[in-house]
Amino acid sequence: MKKNLSAIVTGAGLLILWQIGAGLAGISHILPRPTDVLVCLWNKREVLFKVHMVETLKAIVIGYLIAIVIGVLLAVIMDLSEKLEAMMYPVFVIIETIPIMCIAPLFVLWFGYTLSARILAIVLSTFFSITVNTFDGLKKINKESCELMKTYGAKTMQLFWHIKLPTALPYFMTSLKITFPWAVIGAAIAEWLGANRGLGYYSKLMVSKLDGGTVFAAVLILSVIAIAGIAVIKFIDRKFVFWRSDI
């Protein structure tokens, strides 16, 4: 608590200023007070949590797991062959430079208002960083340790499991901390541009109805999802990648 006290005080101060400023402005339909947001969150808890949050979480979990699998596989493939690295890396860079907001409507044209369109948006917005960070970790091995294991007759897979994987895991976990908020953002953008369910879709619907409180409530839920996801990743990192400080 002492370590986070300044951040807590700053956050509380901003909320108080927001409460007072929004109250003085008197335009709650576009600038609601924090208390108005909480009231909307409670009044519409059924539709927000049981319908739209579930749909958004489904897209995030499926899309992010696919992105992790693709990112790790591509990193391992590039590590195995310099030629494949030279062929694939520039393509990934080009894909990463394409704004998701610009191509998400194409996913709607291809797949319609389905879960597949949102999953694809999440995968494209996250897999690149996972690939690059994991690949960098695989390359930052201790060469002396590898040479020592080779002198004892270690095979390629033994080198991978005992040297490369432990070295790459901290970089991989860092990439997860970076990209999970992107997965949440990608899901919200995809729902905003083309969906019939989800927090992004619902916030867009409430904008058209000038219901600012509910829009902020949906954004608050998305923020909590991102914070909770990062907290889980940090816990896994501390619990299972305990050699990070040594590296």
List the helices and strands and how they pair.
Elements: H1 5-25, H2 34-43, H3 45-80, H4 82-97, H5 100-111, H6 115-139, H7 143-151, H8 156-193, H9 199-208, H10 212-240
Helix pairs in contact: 2-10, 3-4, 3-6, 3-8, 3-9, 5-6, 5-8, 6-8, 8-9, 8-10, 9-10
Structural commentary:
The structure is a single chain. With 247 residues, the chain is mainly α. It has 2 domains: 1-29; 32-240, Orthogonal Bundle (MetI-like fold). The protein is built from 10 helices and no strands. The protein has helices at residues 5-25, 34-43, 45-80, 82-97, 100-111, 115-139, 143-151, 156-193, 199-208, 212-240. Helix 2 (34-43) packs across helix 10. The longest helix has 38 residues, at 156-193. The chain is globular, with a radius of gyration of 22 Å.
